[in-house]
User: What shape does this take?
Amino acid sequence: MDTRAFKLALNHSDNYHRQGFGHKAEVAKVLDSEYQSSLIQEIRANNYLLQQGDVTIKLAESFGFCWGVERAVSMAYETRQHFPTQKIWITNEVIHNPSVNQRLQDMGVEFIPVIEGKKDFSVVASQDVVILPAFGASVQEMQILQEKGCTMVDTTCPWVSKVWNTVEKHKKKNYTSIIHGKYSHEETIATSSFADKYLIVLNLAEAEYVCNYILNGGDSTEFLTKFSRACSAGFDPDRDLQQVGIANQTTMLKNETEQIGKLFERTMMKKYNPAELNKHFQSFNTICDATQERQDAMFKLVDEELDLMVVIGGFNSSNTTHLQEISFERHIPSYHIDSAERILPGNAIEHKPLGKPLEVQSNWLPTGKVVVGITSGASTPDKVVEDAIARILEIKAAALV
Assistant: This one.
């Protein structure tokens, strides 16, 4: 389908809203009371340092709620206020943070049920309101909702929309979109829905496999088996890798996205010679500023003397996981938690090691003086970070009694 024409038509529909409803000031007061932290403001003002007893807390210089997340949460709150009696649904978690999503549920915002891995939109009636989350929704989902005639409130982050525009440019020139992302992530599902031909690569290793195929050929059956869930219908690696454009899931590691882009550029240059590069390769900067800032701050933080690192954010949050990867690669003991409740009594912590299920670690805080680095993903409120710091200080204070 012509996704660009569909989106243009949607933008002119009375049932589609990309802005708030005039309640921003009222909602801002509520959000500040629920999610902001005076302690975090004090630590920021003190050069991102907090010293109390044997504990030194070092905060990353950029962490927590980004502008796109604040906008999405604010619009969700405004929606509830603007439609106080109507049934409100959301197609997915508005952001990847359990406390924020639970708060919306407490406000009567319900999630579209998933049955056998598929969303059941039959529950939505024409008079209902449906919120599209910060990660966006697929074209197919928006089409279903438009046909139902319900009210849509689209909180998609503008950075995500920027990637969609890039994919539209690829499609216009019959290029295959090479998307650096996770094929099962909501954002990448939405982005790929705007493409005609696409291939999703998770990391540099997968990109190298694809580039080797472009240069040397290979077993197309093996290729399609490897990317069976990460390519467009009818994908043919011998036909569809002659012209490629680069796009990305906005929460991926910036450096890896850049490396993948350069790898494909070199590959197409080698395959078709430099003079023909522009006929076979396109690249636009679609790296999210907020993601980049948080990753840069994390790289700076792990260069300091730290005894351990606490990374706070949803376990299904891609940008938080990538922050965890940075400390893992520096061999710093690191604990990914989604809330302060994971810091248990008796100096134990329930955390998610990189690529592994949840586990409980005993005696995770060492005795004596300790320097703790802390950061949080772009969907994590400052209040959650404050609560985690308070738990750490409590544990250390109890050890002295």
The first helix runs from residue 3 to 11. The radius of gyration is 23 Å. The longest strand covers residues 370-376.
